[in-house]
Amino acid sequence: MRVLVVEDSARLQRSLGTALRKSGYAVDLAGDGEEGLWLAESHEYDVIILDIMLPKRDGLSVLTTLREHGKTTHVLLLTARDTVPDRVKGLRAGADDYLIKPFDLEELLARVQSLCRRAYGSKQAVIKVSDMEIDTLGRRVKRGRYPIDLTAREYLLLEYLARRRGQVVTRAEIEEHIYDGQVDPMSNVVDSAICSVRKKLAVAGDEPLIHTRRGLGYALDQAVEAPAT
Amino acid sequence: MISIQRQLTREMLVTFLVLLSGVMAALYFAARDELIEQFDDALRAKVLAISSLTSNDGSRIQVDVSDHFFRSFSRADAEDYFEIWTMTGEAVVRSDSLAGADLPRPDRPGRPRRVRLPNGHNGRALLLKYSPSQEIGEHSGNETKPQLLLVVASDSEALAEALTELLSIGAVSGVLLAGAMLWVIPRVLKRGMQPLAQLGEQAAGIDANSLTTRFPVSGLAAELQPIVSRLNELLARLEVSFERERRFSADLAHELRTPLAELRSLAECSIKWPESREAGADQEVLAVAMQMQTIVTNLLMLARAEQQQATGPLVPVDLRLLVEDAWQSYCTRAEERGLKVRWELAPAIIPADAGLLRSIVGNLFENAADYAPVGGDVLVRLEQSEAGVILRVANRAEGLEPADVAKLFDRFWRKEEARTGGRHFGLGLPLARMFAQAMGWTLTATMDEQRQLEFTLTGPQTAEQA
């Protein structure tokens, strides 16, 4: 899952970046409204964390412009403005959630996670594919009775594929959602990660769950046909 | 608790009852006197009639009775009585109604007296001493006329009954009237006090969130208008005071939320992922704490200045010396940024609070040192004019638009680019202006088309001028 943080406080940017990355998100950071808008329009983020008082262009203006341009990315407003009219104004401008500074880091992560789930039209915390179970709250994966030990990035990849279960997901989409701007777009990080996840899943069950659609991408589902690989 | 309405009700009722009793008593006695007077007049008329009908034929005294007139003297009716005595005390004539009994005889003639009649009733009697008329031709003219005593009495039981009835009517009317007043007075008073009660209700509805409320003065009773006007003035003062406090709290809360969020997230990250803790984390924490301390200190000073509590005693201050001294804190920063300062300082000794003045000048210098373009000029001019002493600090301000000048003295206003620096919180200039006002000075800012920003601090005349 890829998250954009638009926040003018450098300290808060660093803390949020650390917390989100440690929680397995790909994170991009922007320090002002113009940069935030540019990033939000040029990438597919799952969630945008947006401060209201920003240099160059304020957060509400960024949000309104995004919505006018048809961007439906979930936006969490993070602001020091705590009055009810401020909240109402933010939500009316098209925000999906509103969090007041200072905030609880765990709460922020839970809200980001909740917005990610909503981004894929699901409220379920547990995704089941064949004998595999993904607990999105605990960020744990189990196949049969065996827990699967995944890195944060591998977990995100698996959860992203599971949320789009049955659909073909392109490499570009995976890169867009799982990797932030720090990853070289020419690298084969996606293939490597898929390979690694497959291996870990194969330890606990024979049935292949991640299928390659040649020239298109990958799909996660039960084996209804002979795997292409 | 004293209730005006209850007190007025009580006093009005007592007053009314006293007045009512007085009026009733006066009416009763007037009516009684009038009735007795009429009774006595009738008695006198009867005395006059009987005396004029008394004749003396020399041997016998007789009263020429008329059935019509004397019916009330008859035995059957027995309402009136008369008896005639000779001066020797011999009863010569008595009315049938006496049935042979004697009338009690009043001591003196002239005024009717109360007597006890032979039938046991109360009555009034009038005594007359007179000489009856002589039968013509029977007596010679020089014969002395015999003197007689006539007493006419009337039964006054009917009069007493009428008076008792009058008393009863008066008493019942009085009680009814008192009852009516007991019902009416509190209601009338309550109605009269209605505007006061409404005022009380309106006042009860006012709290810290509705201080913009004002009591309507028009249409109010003349007695209440001065009270309501004073209440409105009080509300206006409270509103200004509360608004100042509310704005202070809101501004403070808003400005402290971001550094607090920074501190909290720094700490939470360090606790949750200790390995991610950066080497300079403690310096970061200290910097955030210092930033919050500066904000709180400045805001408190601002709040005190707004309440006019900031000024100390005004003493003669050498402004030129103070300006030169204040620059020392900013000259390093100015040198780093290659600023060239042009000094035009006239000597000026003025009455001022040196601490506040230094703070004002320091703020102006800090802005110039931080915001003048790198390598730019800063002009500091101290001059005297008719109006007083004027200190000007001018430099180009590339980041500001002429429209921004009006906002420079708003609390927490910063041009966006300046907001993230962490050194300026938009409190310095409002504080400087507030300090200037507290001393009776003025601080203004102007910007020309070349974006030359000039702050003008104007004080009173110097000690020499004065």
Task: Report on the architecture of this protein.
The complex is a heterodimer of chains A (229) and B (466). Chain A is of the alpha/beta class and 229 residues long. Chain A is 41% helix and 21% strand. Chain A contains 8 helices and 11 strands. Chain A has a 5-stranded parallel β-sheet, with helices on both faces. In chain A, helix 2 packs parallel to helix 3 and helix 6 (152-163) packs across helix 8. The longest helix of chain A has 16 residues, at 189-204. The radius of gyration of chain A is 18 Å and the shape is elongated. Chain B has 10 helices and 15 strands. In chain B, the strands form 4 sheets. A 5-stranded antiparallel β-sheet of chain B has the order 4-3-8-6-5. A 5-stranded mixed β-sheet of chain B has the order 10-12-13-15-14. Chain B has a 3-stranded mixed β-sheet with strand order 2-1-7. In chain B, helix 5 packs parallel to helix 10 (428-438), helix 6 (319-327) packs across helix 8 and helix 8 (354-371) packs antiparallel against helix 10. The longest helix of chain B is centred in the N-terminal third of the chain and has 50 residues, at 4-53. The chains are: A alpha/beta (229), B alpha+beta (466). At the A-B interface, helix 1 of A face helix 4 and helix 9 of B.
Question: What does this entry show, briefly?
Answer:
The complex is a heterodimer of chains A (229) and B (466). With 229 residues, chain A is α/β, with parallel strands linked by helices.
